[in-house]
Write a structure and sequence with these properties.
2 domains, Rossmann fold, 6-stranded mixed β-sheet
């Protein structure tokens, strides 16, 4: 770190927009003299001396202060703006200042602690600017450059500790948020698996018979393909029935007119009591044609009092049952029927 120690007494000429009766003016003088090791000499308006520094506070009237300082400054005068801000706060430099100043430097001052802090870069830059001049303080100087450990050891140490602590706190907070997000994700995932397991358990514990008439037994393989793809969690048992007394799913392949096919299928069975019956109509349709199925070809309403629920399934010769919105609705309807019975 650069520090001035002239062979003879030397002073730094400065002008200020701070009133003489203000405490800040004395504090600023002490701080700059301590950092530079050079006496700071305030010059008045009538002085013919060229100011090395122009100092002002960043107050509400900072624009007026800058105009006043510009009138008294030379082209190589360095402007120093003092900001009253606490640690961790950002500073906002005035939007308008004349380029007449050779450089503009910022100094931070804490009113709560009544100290300057975090100004290492600004002080180093100020020393560099002053040393780079051919005539330091108006004439050549025999100033020696010494290397010290720190400009303000205690303050800098406190600031470094503060910033390190704040960084660690932010990292801990970030890590906490990440771990909490991961925990919530895993918890939700476990809940989903638990719900699925519970749901599958309920579906597996209920055994539902599936049947059709002997003349329509060829649709058994197609429905088993549908079950293996979409209803693996359901306990469906194929059984040849003619008398129906309990809950059952009846398959009805569509061959001609829809209502005639349904009537033919149901008339084969002797239904006793009021068992819950689900009717599934099976439609042959290739995948590319499926979106064009006419609504009247699908079972969209229940017209038979003996049937409590219904669904439509589509299949093809090439891949049997395939993914589509009709089969998706059938899967949901079948599971709802099993749950409700």
């Amino acid at each position: 770190m650069l520090f001035f120690k002239p062979e003879k007494a030397e002073s730094l000429n400065a002008i200020s927009a701070i009133a003489d009766n203000k405490v800040q003016k004395h504090v600023v003088q002490q701080y700059i003299e301590k950092m530079l090791g050079i006496p700071l000499l305030w010059i008045d308006e009538k002085s013919q001396k060229v100011p090395d520094l122009a100092i002002c506070l960043n107050t509400d009237n900072v624009d007026g202060s800058l105009l006043s300082l510009q009138e008294k400054s030379a082209k190589d005068t360095i402007l120093v703006i003092i900001y009253h801000c606490e640690e961790g706060m950002d500073i906002t430099r005035p939007s308008h200042y004349n380029r007449r100043f050779s450089s503009v430097l910022d100094l931070r001052f804490s009113e709560c602690r009544n100290i300057f802090y975090g100004n290492k870069f600004s002080i180093e830059e100020l020393k560099r600017l002053l040393l780079s001049r051919k005539g330091l303080f108006g004439r050549k100087t025999d100033a020696k450059i010494l290397h010290l450990q720190d400009e303000e050891p205690q303050t800098q140490q406190v600031m470094e500790s503060f910033y390190h602590t704040r960084y660690l706190i932010r990292m801990c907070r970030w890590l906490y948020d990440c771990l909490r997000a991961i925990f919530n994700f895993l918890r939700n995932l476990c809940c989903c698996f638990a719900e699925d397991s519970e749901e599958n358990g309920r579906l597996l514990t209920k055994s539902i018979h599936v049947t059709t008439s002997p003349l329509q037994a060829y649709c058994r393989n197609t429905f088993q393909n549908f079950q293996n793809k979409y209803l693996r969690s359901c306990n469906l048992e194929w059984k040849d029935l003619q008398v129906i007394t309990n809950t059952v799913i009846i398959l009805c392949p569509k061959k001609s007119r829809l209502q005639d096919d349904i009537t033919e299928t149901l008339n084969y069975f002797k239904i006793l009591g009021q068992p819950k019956i689900m009717l599934i109509v099976m439609h042959y349709c290739e995948r590319d044609i499926e979106p064009d199925i006419e609504p009247e070809n699908l079972l969209t309403e229940n017209r038979n009092s003996r049937v409590s629920s219904f669904a439509n399934i589509v299949y093809s010769d090439s891949e049997q049952c395939y993914d589509c919105h009709i089969n998706g609705k059938a899967v949901k309807a079948i599971k709802d029927f099993i749950r409700s019975n």
